[in-house]
Amino acid sequence: MNNAQVLPHYHHIINGEIVKPSSGNYIDVHCPATGNLIAKTADGNATDVDLAVSAARQALKNTDWKNISVTARSKLLYQIGNTVLANAQELAILEVQASGGTIKRVMGLDILAIADLFFTLAESIKSYPFIENLSPKILPEQVHTMVVKEPVGVCGIITAWNFPLLLLSWKIAPAIAAGNTVVVKASELTPTSTFRLIELVNQFLPAGVLNLVSGTGINVGDPLVKHPKVNKISFTGSTQTGRNIQIAAAATLKRVTLELGGKGAAIVMPDANIDLVAHGALFGIMMNSGQACESGSRLIVHANIHDELIAKMKTLAEKIVVGNPLDPATGMGPIVSEQQFSRIETYLKSAQEQGAHIVTGGKRKIIAGFENGYFLEPTIISNCKNDMEHACEEIFGPVVSIIKFTELDEAIGIANDSIYGLSAGIWTEDVIGAQAVARQLEAGSVWINDWHMMRTDAPFGGMKQSGYGREMSHNSLNSYTELKSISTAFERDPSKKSTYHLVHTF
Ligand code: NAD
């Protein structure tokens, strides 16, 4: 069959219209479970970016958007959340086919979390201090001052492939909630669900408020970051790309927020319930085949329970059903691409070369009917030292590195000995003591006796080289707004203004 003739083509969405790429070129999109070509996505360029940015700038002036009340915006966010729920299955299938995330997770967690975020912000903006009136001060005299939070302007939003819909929503929800206009660039590996969600959301927005330009990082992402009429960049992706973006954005002094890589450390205390930890630690790393920035990829285990915990985790890891992500019985789908798969294999090789021991997994898994899929066995590595390559660098795969400790201070030291600071945690029956440990861990999210405990009303983001800025919750609105002070003088008579006397001695 000539696949190219029947393949769906995903174009740009600019000014409320579907627009073909000016180059006429498209990028292949493959399904990581089958290796099949499933779609083509527009291979955008700087000309397309310019068109989208112009539409977004124009939309900032559109009075339907510029003057929209907070109440109307809140209603809009509710409508978007409801639309996500109403179209859940279609969005989820697109998400699973391109990213390899399991249908069970996308339907059971991602879709609900996305709708919940729009609902959370719909409520938050009603009490968010878009306008604050200040109390009088001695100086200046007879002045009323209000502090207003205005939209930043045109926001460039660049996302990664691991949770395309979630990452997109974390950014467009606060951007829209704060009254900005947007140009999105999704990962070229997983553009399909993003296209559909943006198409759905566009039905509620004035043309040009939410635009999409598809393509690669170099041809679309970079021109977006450098565009002089883009006011802010919100990026999710690798730490290396984040660095490049920060440098490129400096030329126009854009506001930048960065959600980058991680190497989450979970400390397991000797009093922890080993059965619960075995389940929880596996959940912490194996969800989305370990391709989660905040996964618990380092397990720092007390020597007294080390061997018993590893044995229990091994038994459970071998029970995880790896396979077709569209099958609701599947617990772990494929790795997103061949390139990512080989990257993980390189880390597994280096772990063994550096003296670590693969307890279970570590090999490609061949699934009947999906022989070309990039499936990897859930992998546990013991005998790790924190400075081994696989133990300190982000693998982004279903691989947990186990490091032994004897003293709590030593464990905290190991957890913090990382360039990253996105997630950390502690497993213990002493939850009061755990609170004190949580305050010492250098991470944006700390989880006690569980993992992935993200909620839409709590901020999420990184410390150190995991980036800066926070997503979700009302806090996310701060980085999509600019502060402005507006002061009105009530004393008009110059002779009564003490400050004028400082200059006007006549
Ligand atoms: P990546 O950095 O390769 O790409 C991310 C996005 O940036 C893609 O859309 C890509 O096309 C674009 N891009 C690439 N080069 C660019 C450039 N020079 N200018 C502008 N845009 C450019 O990351 P990835 O491989 O897609 O995603 C995996 C990474 O994302 C992991 O490191 C993971 O930890 C991180 N991540 C972080 C979070 C978080 O919230 N902290 C969430 C998910 C993923």
Compact summary:
The chain has 506 residues and is α/β, with parallel strands linked by helices. It has helices spanning 3-6, 46-61, 63-66, 70-86, 88-99, 103-127, 164-177, 192-202, 217-226, 239-250, 274-286, 306-317, 338-353, 389-392, 408-416, 431-440, 498-501; strands spanning 9-10, 12-14, 17-19, 26-30, 37-42, 131-133, 143-151, 154-158, 181-185, 210-212, 232-236, 255-259, 265-268, 298-302, 357-360, 379-382, 399-405, 420-421, 423-427, 445-448, 463-464, 467-468, 481-489. The chain folds into 2 domains: 7-260 and 466-485, Aldehyde Dehydrogenase, Chain A, domain 1; 265-448, 3-Layer(aba) Sandwich (Aldehyde Dehydrogenase, Chain A, domain 2).
Q: Report on the biggest sheet.
A: 7 strands, mixed
- Per CATH, the architecture of the largest domain is 3-Layer(aba) Sandwich
Bin the strand percentage. 15-25%
What is the number of domains? 2
Put simply, the count of helices is: 17
Shape: globular
Number of strands: 23
CATH hierarchy class name of the largest domain: Alpha Beta
Radius of gyration computed on alpha carbons = 25 Å
Query: pLDDT average, as an integer?
Result: 97
Walk me through what this model shows.
The protein has 506 residues and is α/β, with parallel strands linked by helices. The chain folds into two domains: 7-260 and 466-485, Aldehyde Dehydrogenase, Chain A, domain 1; 265-448, Aldehyde Dehydrogenase, Chain A, domain 2. It has 17 helices and 23 strands. The strands form six sheets. It has a seven-stranded mixed sheet with strand order 15-16-17-14-13-19-20, with helices on both faces. The protein has a six-stranded mixed sheet with strand order 10-9-8-11-12-22, with helices on both faces. α4 (70-86) packs antiparallel against α6 (103-127), α5 (88-99) packs across α6 and α6 (103-127) packs parallel to α7 (164-177). The longest helix has 25 residues, at 103-127. Nicotinamide-adenine-dinucleotide binds at residues 158-162, 167, 185, 187-188, 216-217, 221-222, 225, 236-238, 241, 244-245, 259-262, 293, 394, 396, 422, 462, 466-467. This is Aldehyde dehydrogenase AldA. Its EC number is 1.2.1.3. It holds the Pfam family Aldedh.
